[in-house]
Amino acid sequence: VKRIFSGIQPTGIPHLGNYLGAIESWVRLQDEHDSVLYSIVDLHSITVPQDPTILRQSILDMTAALLACGINPEKSILFQQSQVSEHTQLSWILTCMVRLPRLQHLHQWKAKTAKEKHNGTVGLLTYPVLQAADILLYKSTHVPVGEDQVQHMELVQDLAQSFNKKYGEFFPVPKSILRFSRQEYCSGLSFPSPGDLPNPGIEPVSLASPTLAASMKKVKSLRDPSAKMSKSDPDKLATVRITDSPEEIVQKFRKAMTDFTSEVTYEPASRGGVSNLVAIHAAVAGLPVEEVVRRSAGMDTARYKLVVADAVIEKFAPIKSEIEKLKMNKDHLEKVLQVGSARAKELAYPVCQEVKKLVGFL
Ligand code: TYM
After folding, report:
1. Which protein residue's CA is at the shortest distance from atom 35 of ligand 1?
2. d(CA 148, ligand 1 centre) in Å
3. Whose CA is nearest to atom 19 of ligand 1?
4. What is the value of ipTM here, to two decimals?
5. Distance in angstroms (rounded) separating the CA atoms of residues 297 and 45
6. HAMAP family, per this entry (predicted)?
């Protein structure tokens, strides 16, 4: 059987990248599968300093945002990572199975420690091992993530395999589910079978819908199309949050970096800025990239930016008002997390016990 697991850090309101890269697939997957868990990974968020009052609020804000995006606690288990202590227990066991250089070579560690002037915490270094524990603790088979998590997923796959080699077949080796790009993997409208994909650890999100053809594995920064859109970008204009006001959204798209060609085309390799806008537009409008490009024939990029802004505003308006409603009912949000965490604990406890037996603790 398939078990789907994914997580998101409660550090601020989700942005377009989180939404298109992950959350939108989460919503679809909970309808298609019986065993689905989504975690607000608060343990991960303290790998960089957090103010306790803000963190407490951010956990509830993220809960409201996920519910407003369509995560339904009747269909999936929505829970708070720190409330299921087995995550840290399994994390320790896995930490003792991974060599230091393996972690030091991961892109995110290198990028983040460069920012922290090579003074990152040990937690920041071992962060991907905790991620492995999150996933393996539920014997998960599939993990919907954005492309930035693929390298972490390779580590998770390696850890599952080394554990199985040492202690006997126990963990399934989980696959990433990426919202994939037809340009790279497919020709025409026929979608590949997972075996045709360049990396067998990755599965396309859905084999049916051509609207997924937009290259949304990674939403780029609006200010620098070579970088991913990120919560921590110091340039406020780079990142569109789902709760931004229509005025902010228009301003951010108006200032989006494009090039000196005024035509709207989709050429991610040579025209990253415009192509990012086309991909975002296609994804939020639920249209194939070709259709979006066809509809914008004759339009210059300045005008087109406003069209994309409008499409994003329209997509997020109902979510934004739902978040505001949900945020007024703090008790409800706390209850959702409590119930979810208790359900997750029920699944996690027996697996953790078995692991402890295998390792020789019991
Ligand atoms: P986080 O909180 O940074 O991001 C949550 C999800 O959003 C995706 N994402 C993007 N997708 C496309 N374009 C972007 N610009 C973009 N930015 C973010 C991420 O790929 C992710 O899927 N380490 C994880 C959290 C985590 C986790 C896990 C995920 C902890 N344990 C177990 C899966 C399974 C993280 O920091 O995601």
Report:
1. 8
2. 7
3. 146
4. 0.99
5. 44
6. Trp_tRNA_synth_B
